[in-house]
Design a protein that fits this description.
Elements lengths: L6 H13 L9 H8 L3 H13 L3 E4 L3 E4 L1 H23 L8 H8 L5 H10 L25 E2 L8 E7 L4 H9 L7 E7 L6 E5 L4 E4 L1 H5 L1 E5 L1
Antiparallel strand pairs: 1-2, 3-8, 4-5, 4-8, 5-6, 6-7
């Protein structure tokens, strides 16, 4: 029986999966070091270790890719993380800006039975509180159609599906504007000088969002 991965090793696999956008794309080691906030030399040592264990393919100057086993572990960690976020928000009434750090700790619980029970208890959710897809027990992600808010045009009415920035500051900012999953917005004006948007919500209130903020919000056309 192989020795369980350390929390650090699991986090590396999860981060590689995230930086590869879930595809078989090579991840630059500098980008990985920046994301994990650790020296490149330490990253190289860890990648060599993970490569020896068969979880990644790594060649110097060629980037790093997950093997099938590495990808499976990464998806399982992401699955647990997002299920715990649903639990924390829906059952313990955490706000969506509070759950990420707690879920970071809970995602490393290794009990498959607990994960299965949690999934069933939550009625098999497909998305977490930030709109991110939750893989099923076979590692399959649900189909979804979403675009950044910046992909839409003046006059379009859209529904917020998720965010790609789950930092507490950004989520609190959206809460202050009363923006959440399911909020409906109509794009009144896109300002030509900086691409910021003047929006109208379902309560007929006007909201201004910067171009950068709009890039972090996923929507579908209503």
């Amino acid at each position: 029986m192989s020795k369980p991965l350390s929390l650090t090793e699991e986090n590396y696999l999860k981060t590689i999966f995230s930086l590869s956008d879930g595809q078989d794309n090579a991840v630059n080691t500098s980008a990985l070091a920046k994301q994990i906030n650790i020296a490149s030399s330490s990253v190289t040592d860890m990648l060599k270790r993970l490569g020896e264990k068969g979880y990644i393919h790594y060649e110097k100057y060629q980037g790093v890719r997950l093997t099938d086993s590495g990808r499976s572990i990464a998806i399982n960690i992401i699955r647990k993380h997002r299920l715990w976020e649903v639990f924390l928000v829906d059952k313990l009434h955490f706000s969506w800006d509070e759950v990420h750090e707690v879920a970071e700790q809970l995602e490393h619980i290794r009990s498959k039975k607990l994960t299965t029970r949690l999934y069933e208890f939550l009625n098999k959710p497909k998305f977490d509180p930030h709109g991110d897809p939750i893989p099923d027990e076979n590692g399959n992600f649900p189909d979804m159609e979403r675009n950044m808010l910046t992909d839409f045009n003046e006059g379009d009415t859209v529904t917020i599906l998720g965010v790609n920035d789950d930092s507490p500051d950004f989520l609190k900012y959206l809460e202050q504007l009363n923006l959440k999953l399911g909020s409906i917005l109509t794009i009144n004006t896109i300002l030509s000088h900086d691409r910021s948007m003047e929006l109208r919500n379902q309560h007929n209130k006007t909201i201004m969002l910067s171009y950068i903020s709009c890039q972090h919000i996923f929507c579908k056309k209503s």
